[in-house]
């Protein structure tokens, strides 16, 4: 799908002087506070903030967001309309001379910034990303997969599934296992002469096939609307999630708006196990070149390996490319998020949080991105 005609938000560019000064101060703050772990339970909040800064493409917008948040935390008032970055850098640049109480408040601001990223982006994205609503129930059945109509209808998802199966040659893009359902149909039609999409016999694979699912790279929950006084609009947490995702890559939100989220460029054909791992950001696609990827566990020391990785795969394309290929940019951002979740401990932290909330009577993670993480 081309970006022609798509409105991409312009980044908030800083002057070179402000950019360099903000980067230096950010790095100084992180170096000073990263050794601390005020939340515990394995999560490293300052590390999370550092990793996000390293991975986002729009660093200027991230730096403005970060320093504005810290200023609001220190002063207790909103500064979104009159924030002055130069003044903030001047004020915070002397933090090493502050009192212990002052530096504790500053450190608390970094932790709260990390929790804002967690609550509004990483937690809902990880909790719902594996929930492509196509008859694939999972352990979090209480999660609402959509707040508004218009996207994810059975008809649209069937069309997406058919397109992905055709494009991916009825095979999981990770394991290359062939579709059980498609093989059965071909057997009923052709008997022992059944062949795969490349004309090769499927008989040698008869004991190695799998049920396949369509997996969204970015889930419906990211784009679904809430009803407010009869008006369909994004919730505040969704707006924040979009703001954060735009910092990773400003082209993504325009390309998955509305029904475009169900385009093949935002989907892969996977086995159920691969779908679960991909949705949980436990496996990711590291781009090598063109449509070739190294697929591996985010945790290189992963003990339980239900899929043998790493593998290098070149994703299939239709001969005339009438069906969009999986977006390279989408998979790059998914890979970046997987790295952040693993290296910061946020992935394990979120998994434990979801398990505990799922076990609590009435506990749930809302598909609008809200959570009770502060009560955890």
Q: Your description of this structure?
A:
The longest helix has 29 residues, at 100-128. Helices cover 43% and strands 9% of the residues. The chain has helices at residues 16-33, 45-55, 59-75, 85-92, 100-128, 154-167, 180-190, 236-248, 252-255, 272-279, 328-343, 346-359; strands at residues 212-216, 226-228, 231-233, 267-271, 283-289, 292-297, 311-314. By secondary structure, the chain is mainly α. Strands 5-6-7 form a three-stranded antiparallel sheet. Strands 1-4 form a two-stranded antiparallel ribbon. The protein has twelve helices and seven strands. The chain is elongated and about 80 Å long.
Key terms for this structure?
disordered C terminus, 43% helix, HNH nuclease domain-containing protein, two-stranded antiparallel ribbon, 376 residues, mainly alpha, disordered N terminus, 3-stranded antiparallel beta sheet, HNH_nuc
């Amino acid at each position: 799908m081309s970006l022609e005609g798509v409105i991409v938000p312009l980044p908030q560019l800083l002057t070179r002087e402000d950019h360099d000064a903000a980067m230096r101060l950010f790095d100084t703050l992180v170096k000073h506070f990263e050794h601390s772990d005020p939340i515990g339970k394995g999560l490293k909040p300052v590390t999370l903030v550092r990793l996000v800064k390293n991975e986002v493409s729009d660093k200027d917008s991230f730096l403005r967001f970060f320093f504005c948040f810290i200023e609001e935390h220190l002063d207790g008032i909103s500064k979104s309309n009159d924030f002055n970055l130069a003044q903030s850098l001047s004020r915070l640049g002397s933090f090493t001379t502050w009192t212990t109480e002052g530096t504790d408040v500053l450190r608390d601001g970094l932790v709260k910034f990390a929790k804002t990223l967690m609550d509004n982006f990483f937690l809902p994205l990880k909790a719902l990303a594996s929930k492509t609503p196509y008859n694939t129930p999972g352990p979090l059945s209480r999660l609402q997969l959509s707040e508004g109509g218009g996207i994810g209808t059975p008809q649209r998802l069937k069309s997406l599934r058919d397109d992905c199966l055709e494009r991916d040659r009825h095979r999981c893009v990770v394991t290359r296992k062939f579709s059980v359902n498609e093989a059965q149909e071909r057997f009923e039609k052709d008997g022992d002469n059944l062949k795969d999409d490349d004309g090769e016999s499927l008989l040698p694979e008869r004991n190695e096939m799998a049920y396949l699912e369509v997996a969204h790279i970015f889930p419906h929950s990211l784009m679904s609307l809430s009803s407010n006084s009869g008006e369909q609009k994004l919730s505040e947490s969704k707006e924040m999630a979009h703001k954060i995702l735009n910092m990773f890559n400003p082209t993504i939100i325009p390309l998955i708006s509305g029904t475009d989220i169900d385009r093949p460029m935002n989907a892969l054909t996977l086995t159920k196990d691969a779908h679960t791992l991909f949705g949980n950001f436990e496996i990711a696609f590291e781009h090598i070149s063109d449509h070739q990827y190294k697929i591996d566990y985010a945790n290189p020391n992963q003990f339980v390996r239900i899929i043998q990785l790493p593998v290098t795969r070149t994703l299939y394309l239709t001969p005339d490319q009438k069906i969009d290929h999986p977006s390279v940019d989408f998979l790059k951002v998914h890979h970046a998020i997987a790295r952040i979740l693993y290296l910061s401990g946020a992935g394990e932290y979120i998994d434990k949080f979801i398990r505990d909330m799922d076990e609590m009577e009435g506990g749930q993670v809302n598909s609008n991105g809200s959570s009770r993480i502060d009560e955890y």
